[in-house]
Q: What sequence folds into this?
């Protein structure tokens, strides 16, 4: 898409208005999808579009319009001795493929981000949400037509499985594929895609309580990281605690963790400590309880000899998503930030903050746990690539 | 590697000195490799290490030491309302795998770049260069030992083919793989690697002579882009010329092209024009002569109706490496820069300038023709990834 910054904003504002004007039509289509789904299916809530959720969609489109245009930014400039002007600028990636599941809001969110960044997008939504997605894409197309933009820049693929495979192999037509959904979807895309993909993988997140930590604060951080929203990837999975303070620290998490009936899988030493304070939902940890993403009210605990052992444990079991240390020793804090290899590393804070919106990037498509192109929150600016632009007046190379 | 900026520089200077001190030993090993190779083999020259080439290697290590440390750069900073300090910095990618062929100089060049950027590197050189590579890596290890750096941060893999396959599948241990060599090597890596790779693909490069062009300058640019070093990826492959000036322009390239006996594969109209001036090495173009990387003294020519046709041709046949327009119409120049999708786009200059050194980036590992992570010259700074570093004093998420 070769729309101007202003043109993209106008299109998105028109889209927000059209969403608001078509609430009834959207709900009618959504009901058709809902009717096909079993009432007991946990995906039903993710599929549901209510009036207020549709309003939130329109609002989020307006938010994306407010974000700074990520394209056309000058990243580098050099004038060569021969007068050649070398610059490097950001440009849209080109064609973005998204494979996602039930949530129809992804259709609008991702289309808005792609329009804002000047990319074409191939949407491959779930069969569950087919009627909802068809209406939403129709509304997007109305906004595009109103702004004289070719509607095939936003395409909804048929739900037939064969189109997923075709998309994953279309290296000449698709520049990047982002799977958004369950681990099995992500694994499938990773294993089968010939197009470069962004992995938004699991989060096995540790918080290490170092011996100098403020134990009250440490307990608050650990409990928050576990219970504030346990179903997400930046939630805590394993507590590591220095031996010298384990006896003083662990009883402090009892109340907060028990309030949510968190199942704690504890190594021998921590089990003894938590048992002595009658922690309710306590189990002896087995080796598979470490390096595990709980995605719910569960976590593991391990007592470590010292920082070396903590770093070693993290290096072995981390999925390189979000890792934290709680400590009042500035040197140890810096060492942790320096040596732990993860998308986000923290001192004295809950890992729950790893989020595009929180970090100030606007809406995110996911948290990348890979190292190339994007690491951490994958937001608008990462829907760009670079282009070297060289302006001359007859220069040749000697 | 957790060396300081200064520590890395010192290590590289020690390496340069050790290379100079071991010229004889290097040459002895290199002779063993050369002796195994047939005299007629064109790879023999690439394998050869002379005293002056070894000196050049030491010099290039010193050049890399002079480059700015690409790690630890702050890319983003935000202090949240709750006092949380969010920053994003550059860090080493981690473990870099390089698969390359005969040239033993790659061993030193790549090891130096990886040391400078704090990465560990797995070198998988060609069987041809085995003795040379063993000595060179031994010298690198001496420099590392002198600086108390673990030598396994630079490893030469055995030449057994099975190690290539293992490396391509080692997603838990290798963060990025860069193939450096022939197209067949690159294709093999692309097809088989589960580790993210950087494609340094072919260059099918066009230069479009627009009707307003200064024809003398255009001829000079085109000839330079073709003959200055035709074996490389940024050399010209196809000339597109506006119909209205084709008759005036094409005769101007005759002398320069004939000097190097360039074989010209011309479409019907350009064939007539070049035939009328008795161009010597002239052929009628077939469809396969367009979209072809010549890598030698050959090119194709096509007369186009106008800029639209030129853009369409480029969009269809470009490998998205380097593309140029020659024109005095500023608006058309900007349109070309804007609309052509390639790693490097030029106005009024030879495409031969696409090069890390020329662009001011220092030594390059190759020219990336893909869009993620790195596009264009792949140099030192792209051996980094990002890390979100978040400093708190007890913050939790509400």
A:
């Amino acid at each position: 898409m070769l729309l101007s910054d202003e043109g993209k904003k106008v299109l998105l504002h028109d889209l927000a208005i059209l969403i608001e004007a078509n609430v009834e039509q959207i709900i009618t289509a959504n009901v058709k999808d809902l009717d096909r789904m079993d009432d007991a299916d946990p995906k039903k809530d993710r599929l549901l579009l209510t009036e207020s959720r549709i309003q939130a969609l329109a609002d989020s489109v307006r938010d994306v319009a407010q974000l700074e245009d990520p394209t056309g930014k000058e990243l580098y400039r050099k004038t060569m001795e021969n007068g050649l002007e070398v610059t490097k600028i950001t440009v849209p990636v080109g064609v973005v493929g998204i494979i996602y599941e039930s949530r129809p809001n992804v259709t609008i969110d991702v289309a808005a981000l792609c329009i804002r960044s000047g990319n074409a997008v191939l949407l491959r939504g779930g069969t569950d949400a087919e009627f909802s997605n068809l209406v939403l894409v129709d509304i997007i197309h109305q906004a595009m037509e109103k702004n004289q933009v070719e509607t095939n820049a936003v395409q909804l693929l048929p739900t037939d499985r064969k189109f997923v495979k075709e998309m994953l192999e279309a290296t000449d037509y698709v520049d990047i594929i982002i799977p958004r959904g369950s681990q099995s979807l992500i694994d499938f895309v990773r294993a089968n895609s010939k197009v470069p993909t962004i992995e938004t993988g699991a989060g096995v997140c540790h918080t290490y309580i170092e011996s100098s930590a403020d134990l009250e604060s440490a307990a608050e951080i650990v409990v928050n990281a576990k219970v504030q929203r346990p179903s997400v990837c930046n939630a805590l999975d394993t507590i590591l605690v220095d031996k010298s303070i384990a006896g003083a620290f662990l009883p402090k998490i009892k109340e907060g963790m028990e309030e949510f009936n968190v199942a704690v899988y504890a190594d021998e030493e921590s089990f003894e400590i938590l048992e002595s304070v009658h922690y309710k939902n306590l189990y002896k940890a087995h080796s598979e309880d470490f390096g595990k993403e709980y995605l719910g009210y569960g976590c593991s605990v391990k007592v470590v000899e010292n920082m070396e052992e903590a770093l070693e444990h993290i290096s072995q079991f981390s999925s390189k998503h979000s890792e934290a240390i709680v400590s009042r020793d500035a040197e140890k804090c810096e060492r942790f930030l320096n040596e732990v290899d993860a998308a986000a590393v923290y001192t004295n804070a809950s890992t729950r903050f790893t989020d595009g919106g929180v970090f100030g990037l606007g809406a995110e498509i996911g948290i990348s746990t890979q190292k190339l192109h994007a690491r951490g929150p994958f937001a608008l600016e990462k829907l760009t690539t670079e282009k070297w632009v060289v302006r001359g007046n007859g220069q040749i190379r000697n």
About this structure: The mean pLDDT of chain A is 94. Chain A has 15 helices and 16 strands. The longest strand of chain A covers residues 384-395. Chain A has two domains: 5-199+374-391, 205-355.
